[in-house]
Amino acid sequence: MRAVTLSLAACLLAVFVPTTTKAQKRTTPSTPAALRRVADDYYQWRNENYPVGSSDAGLHTWDKRLTDYSASAIAARSRHARELLAQVKAMNTASWKKDDRIDWLLFRAQLEGVAFFDRVMAFEQTDPQVYVNECSNAIFSLLKKDYDTPRNRALSATARLKQMPAMIEQGKTNLSKPVKLYAQLAIDSARSIDSLYNDSLMTIAGDLSPAERADLVKAKDAAIASLHAYADWLEKRLPQMPAFAPMGEANYNYLLKNVYLLPLNAGQVEMLGQAELARYRALESLLPDPSLADPNPARSKNIPPDQEAFLKAYESREAEMISFLKENKLVTLPSYLGPFQIRQLPEAFKPTSPGGFMNPPGVYDKDPVGFYFIPTYNPQSKNFYIRAAIEDPRPILGHEGIPGHFLQLSIANHLKDEIRRQHGDGIFIEGWALYGEEMLMRTGLYPANSASQGQILRLSRYRSARIGVDVNLHTGRWTFDEAVKYFMEAGGLDREAAEGEAAGAASSPTQKITYITGKWQIMRLLGKYRDKKGKDFRLGQFHDDLIKNGSLPLSIVEWILLDDPSSLELALR
């Protein structure tokens, strides 16, 4: 990557031309203190306007509310984000100190993300999953932690359940151009929600009075009926719905540049995916037995007989991994780090999360516990993640737990700088977790030519395949079926995993590029960091220095660690 000679201050001023009037410019505050006041006000506004998201983040002020999806509320939120973005862009930061300018860039990128998805994707009008996800997360966010008494949480659930039928009707009104693929995923999720409501939710209902319990059951049944009717409504309209519509390359590049502050465009990211895919397919082939890269429970000494035994086997390897990290001084574990637990994935989340997902402590969470939700256990499953976890859970555990997401995000939550604490750059987050998988292999956790090592190579192989799927889907070069086929043939996944991966890529633009792109940026930064440190270089110190800054774009991190703004300047051109 060539360096850019234009100074950073000049680059910023050249790129961010204010779009406000002269009168607005005179009244726009342009001090770091003003920026932080604006940011704090925005976070308060966001938390109140998205109460389910607040609950999920560990802030339980509005636990009895759902998001208002009336047309007027959607328009007002979009307008507020646009106006605030214009105000922040108009700030003259040329004389600000480096740390203040970084915070300005980060907050601006946060607002760019909101404005972009409102403008380009318009999910409230195109994606029926929005309303099913609201119903799922509204209850799930009240269940996953014991932040209050079971009774109070159950009462909050009742209040939310009562609002769901009306919210679903709002969704039907809003969906002026629903996408067929999104609708099919929403149908699957809506019809899988029963166990979350009938089983998981009722575990906190024990202290309710008979009248309160009856009220909960009535609201629960009405919500389920409403979601099932919503699925039926969508299914009847599927034939008339348009197929998946890509955002196009210009929009994709805008997202990479303005939200991720990434010094690569769509074509370069896609080429990175091809290069890494070729490398990891070749590394698999160089194993004495290439089949080691394809997880096979039959090679395991012990196949857990049931779900409970499977979860315990998963967690039992964590202590071993932590000891390895400490003995080799690979990363510092802070004293505030809480326990990391493995739990079963609720059925409602399976359509787009076939491998499960990580639920770290929320940014407002007082409870330091984190969870990894894994699919329902079946020793005969063809699911890649289940097979991999039976044979050796450590590669995935290292990604999701320690030193991966759980450690990194727990540290990010403890930052004092609120703008940086709130920033959640997916390329950094997933890049660090994927980097950690191979780092543990390279530093000796797994025997050479073992199934564990093979799994590491396969995990990077299919993350590389994700890039081709994401870029080509959203720039319009591939269909959904072509994406599934690519995951199977190039990524080495089974059809179930491939379809879930492709669905996730379609539903969350750019999320699938984050793993390999972030890992590549971290590897690049590691080499430059070592060159700068010389004989004083220590790998564990690099890891500590890297993750102590939170979940920031790696172009920003490079500026912080090396005082080198060249990657950021390239991103902002």
Explained architecture:
By secondary structure, the protein is an all-alpha fold. Helices cover 62% and strands 2% of the residues.
Task: State the main characteristics.
573 residues; mainly alpha; 3 domains; three-stranded mixed sheet; 28 helices; 3 strands
Quick summary of this structure?
With 573 residues, this protein is mainly α. It has helices at residues 8-15, 22-27, 32-49, 51-56, 71-89, 98-121, 123-126, 129-143, 150-174, 180-190, 194-200, 210-237, 249-258, 266-285, 307-316, 318-327, 384-391, 394-400, 405-412, 418-422, 426-442, 451-474, 480-489, 495-507, 514-533, 539-547, 554-562, 566-571; strands at residues 340-344, 357-359, 370-374.
Residue fraction in strands:
under 5%
| CA gyration radius, whole angstroms | 24 Å
Class based on secondary structure composition and strand pairing: mainly alpha
What is the helix content? 55-70%
Shape: globular
Summed over residues and divided by their number, the pLDDT gives a mean of: 91
Q: Could you describe the largest sheet, including whether it forms a barrel? A: 3 strands, mixed
Count, helices: 28
Number of domains: 3
DSSP, total strands: 3
Euclidean distance between termini CA atoms: 14 Å
Q: Note poorly predicted spans.
A: 1-26
Could you give the order of strands across the largest sheet? 1-3-2
Topology summary:
Layout: H1 8-15, H2 22-27, H3 32-49, H4 51-56, H5 71-89, H6 98-121, H7 123-126, H8 129-143, H9 150-174, H10 180-190, H11 194-200, H12 210-237, H13 249-258, H14 266-285, H15 307-316, H16 318-327, E1 340-344, E2 357-359, E3 370-374, H17 384-391, H18 394-400, H19 405-412, H20 418-422, H21 426-442, H22 451-474, H23 480-489, H24 495-507, H25 514-533, H26 539-547, H27 554-562, H28 566-571
Parallel strand pairs: 1-3
Antiparallel strand pairs: 2-3
Helix pairs in contact: 5-6, 8-9, 8-10, 9-12, 10-12, 14-22, 18-21, 21-22, 21-25, 22-23, 22-24, 22-25, 23-24, 25-27
